């Protein structure tokens, strides 16, 4: 039956879903020490970028290979993300406690800078060889240059987060697929921008 054939939309959907489940499990597993969360996310992005282009192979093999290769680079990026997220959290906590408009503005500015500087950093690190600072700069530059696309991506990510937090059942489902779906969403947007930038660079050469 065509419905169950390897070329059917149903089979492709189930296959992609299973890849997402595997990727989510490996990401969670390698995030357990916390300090390796950055390297785990870079590895997950490496796989997700290939998934977005339908060029992924064995998920486990690709993930752990990328994890080993990006361990030293990913750890500082993960720690920076945690520090930045905590700084934004503190700004909003101070605003909540003092109701000071200054803390609210600081929190909003910090959140925007945090998102623009780090949103593309993980897929950039997964795809290209570059210095840590240059990766962050490129992430910020891409966010500015393609602001509307980035805004659309952030909106979709927000919807996904709200969906997974909607009720207990969806939270349970989110535990198995949520982080990987968020990572895949970022990488699906990022790979299109990377291809566009690469094409522009080739035309200038």
Describe this structure in words.
- With 205 residues, the protein is mainly alpha-helical.
- 84% of the residues lie in helices and 0% in strands.
- It has helices at 9-31, 37-52, 59-69, 71-98, 101-118, 121-127, 132-145, 147-164, 168-204.
- Helix 4 (71-98) packs antiparallel against helix 5 (101-118).
- The model has no long low-confidence stretch (mean pLDDT 84).
Based on secondary structure, the structural category is: mainly alpha
Largest sheet descriptor:
none
Q: What is the helix content? A: over 70%
User: Over all CA atoms, what is the radius of gyration?
Assistant: 18 Å
Question: What coarse outline follows from CA principal-axis ratios?
Answer: globular
- Tally the helices: 9
Instruction: Provide the succession of SSEs.
Output: HHHHHHHHH
Total strands: the figure is: 0
N- and C-termini, Cα separation: 50 Å
| Nearest-integer average pLDDT | 84
- Percent strand equals under 5%
Residue stretches low in confidence (pLDDT < 50, at least 5 long) are none
């Amino acid at each position: 039956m065509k419905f169950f054939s390897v070329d059917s939309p149903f089979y492709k959907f189930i296959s992609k879903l299973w890849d997402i489940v595997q990727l989510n499990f490996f990401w969670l597993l390698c995030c357990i020490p916390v300090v390796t969360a950055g390297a785990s996310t870079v590895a997950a992005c490496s796989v997700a970028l290939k998934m977005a282009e339908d060029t992924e192979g064995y998920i486990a093999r690709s993930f752990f290979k990328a994890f080993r290769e990006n361990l030293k680079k990913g750890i500082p990026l993960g720690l920076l993300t945690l520090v930045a997220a905590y700084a934004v959290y503190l700004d909003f906590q101070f605003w909540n406690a003092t109701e000071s408009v200054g803390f609210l503005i600081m929190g909003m500015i910090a959140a925007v800078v945090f998102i623009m500087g780090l949103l593309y950093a993980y897929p950039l690190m997964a795809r290209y060889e570059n210095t840590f600072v240059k990766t962050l700069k490129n992430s910020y530059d891409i966010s500015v240059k393609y602001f509307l696309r980035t805004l659309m991506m952030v909106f979709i990510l927000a919807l996904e987060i709200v969906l997974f937090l909607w009720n207990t059942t969806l939270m349970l489902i989110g535990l198995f697929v949520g982080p990987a779906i968020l990572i895949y969403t970022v990488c699906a947007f990022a790979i299109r921008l990377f291809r566009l930038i690469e094409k522009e660079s080739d035309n200038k050469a």
